[in-house]
Amino acid sequence: KIGVVVDMTEFLDATDAAIQEDIRFEFGLLSSIHRFPRVALVSDKKWVAFIATRLGHLTSGVDIRIFAPGDSDSAISWASSQPTSKNVSHKAALRRIATPSTSPGNVFAFEIDGRMSEAEMPDFVGEVTRFLDLHDRVNMLARIKAFEFEPGILFQKQLWSMKLDALRKVDRYAVVGGPDWLQTTLEAIAPTLPSV
Length: 196
Prior knowledge:
Blueprint: E1 4-7, H1 16-29, E2 38-42, H2 46-58, E3 63-67, H3 72-80, E4 94-96, E5 107-116, H4 121-134, E6 138-149, H5 157-169, E7 170-177, H6 180-189
Parallel strand pairs: 1-2, 2-3, 5-6, 6-7
Antiparallel strand pairs: 4-5
């Protein structure tokens, strides 16, 4: 496990090329993200706090905190201490749920309640794919109680293949619950999906 401290107090600007290189580098780290339980950012810039908050939503298992420029020692101390591990047995976060008997047969309803693991994703993707294969047009319902995921899920090819297939078949997609940032994200991408 590695604690990370990034002092951004003197950071003023970056070129497009530098930003692109940084993004490539950071995407390369996603498969090892479990090795970085704590990231301390030392900054007084509001945009750094904004980005850190958004990244915190996408990197479950990584605690990202902002420290004021005068608090570098606290940032180092916090990042170098290891979080206490929670010995909680993992239950599947993804599961299909029953739809009311009055619902049409082309509704796939599922629930997310917890941290989705890379290990459970192939079975779930297979279940959705089989459902899509049975229907020309479908409706989806996602009930979200708690939403976290292992970043490695984003690199599973079968997940993206299933999502592209679903985009061609989905008439309606309802999301019930979930964190505020997810609602904001869905509202932002909705105009790009005119058929859903």
